[in-house]
Design goal:
The chain is of the alpha+beta class. The chain has a single domain, classed as Extracellular Endonuclease, Chain A (3-Layer(aba) Sandwich). The chain has seven helices and eleven strands. The chain has helices spanning 3-28, 46-55, 82-89, 186-190, 203-222, 289-296, 306-313, and strands spanning 109-112, 117-121, 126-134, 172-175, 198-201, 226-234, 238-240, 245-247, 250-259, 262-272, 286-287. A hairpin with a 4-residue loop joins strand 1 and strand 2 (117-121). It starts with a helix and ends in a 5-residue tail after the last helix. One manganese (II) ion binds next to helix 7. One manganese (II) ion binds at residues 290, 293, 309, 313.
Length: 318
């Protein structure tokens, strides 16, 4: 056979082989190094390395040294989901957006304020949850501003609950983010008095057990801890204000406690929103974060790795 034809044929085979392997790589978007050899330093993010491990479960590149199915744990996690991106931009959502609150669903409507973030529910006339950071930087000595008012930031068509809507109902205008957690400046304190930060709370719940946990939280801060707190109501006891405001059956709160930047512990309570809690202690209502997740359907602290969530969400604080 003519040596030139043989060469041409060989070149052709090599080229097409190269092309087709290129195509495979493009389709599955596997990185270049899979053609030769990969190690963790070939990847910018854990997500990229995970793709390769998922593709080659026998791990020919030894990306999963500890054999737990997760490749290159030391790499940064990689591209963020929308919920994570929102959380990253807001310190009050540092550990997650429990219900994936957004700007489309008026019953899970994300409101981000400098002092806290919340998911508003136009149907119930209350927040589904409010989330806030608490550390020394928020604490000072300004007086309670007491300027209860409708929230001007609600979406179109959503009734803005007024301070008088609770009048005569037998329920307190109960703060979710406490006034006492925002005493650094007058405007920070005033921000806690919009009605979207209130739920109708039974007087004994609001003034006794709930308040005692608020005080305990600030005690932890004075010991140097930083807290990430999420609170809301659960269920429907009744409605007030001609049906515009739902009174929850329970109030709940979950707290992530960190010290020196490390997640240390969680505190969770679920408290009946009735007078039966009179002369009881907040510690009587301790549950696990997992329990509150089950009851509310929210996922707290979802930005933490799942194994860490499992570790800290299953126990009851003591
Ligand atoms: Mn959990
Ligand atoms: Mn969780």
């Amino acid at each position: 056979m003519n040596i030139k034809i043989l060469c041409a044929a060989l070149v052709f085979i090599l080229l097409t082989a190269g092309c087709s392997s290129n195509k495979v790589n493009q389709q599955t978007s596997l990185p270049e190094c899979t053609k030769t050899d990969c190690d963790c330093s070939d990847f910018a993010t854990q997500q990229e390395a995970q793709k390769v491990l998922d593709k080659f479960p026998n791990d020919p590149y030894r990306l999963d040294g500890d054999g737990d199915g997760i490749a290159c744990e030391s790499l940064p996690r990689g591209e963020k989901t929308t919920a994570e991106a929102i959380a990253a931009a807001n310190i009050h959502l540092k550990y997650g957006n429990p219900s994936n609150a957004n700007l489309k669903d008026t019953n899970n409507y994300l409101l981000e304020k400098p002092q806290y973030a919340l998911s508003y529910n136009c149907q119930t006339g209350t927040a589904n949850w409010v989330s806030w950071q608490l550390n020394r930087s928020w604490l000072g000595s300004v007086d309670r501003s007491d300027d209860f008012r409708p929230d001007p930031d609600l979406p179109d068509g959503c009734y803005a609950v007024r301070p008088n809507d609770y009048r005569g109902s037998g329920y307190d205008r109960g703060h979710l983010t406490p006034s006492g957690d925002r005493t650094s400046t007058q405007s920070n304190n005033s921000a806690t008095f919009v009605m979207s930060n209130m739920i109708p709370q039974s007087p004994s719940n609001n003034r006794e057990v709930w308040r005692e946990l608020e005080t305990y939280s600030r005690d932890l801060v004075s010991q140097g801890k930083e807290l990430y707190i999420v609170a809301g109501g659960e269920g429907k006891e009744k409605s007030i204000a001609d049906g515009k405001v739902t009174v929850p059956k329970y109030t709940w709160k979950v707290i992530l406690v960190s010290g020196n930047g490390n997640v240390e512990n969680t505190i969770a309570v679920r408290i009946p929103n009735t007078e039966e809690v009179a002369r009881t202690d907040w510690t009587d209502y301790l549950v696990s974060v997992d329990e509150v997740e089950k009851k509310t359907g929210y996922d707290f602290f979802s930005n933490l790795d799942r194994d860490i969530q499992q570790k800290i969400e299953g126990k009851v604080y003591k």
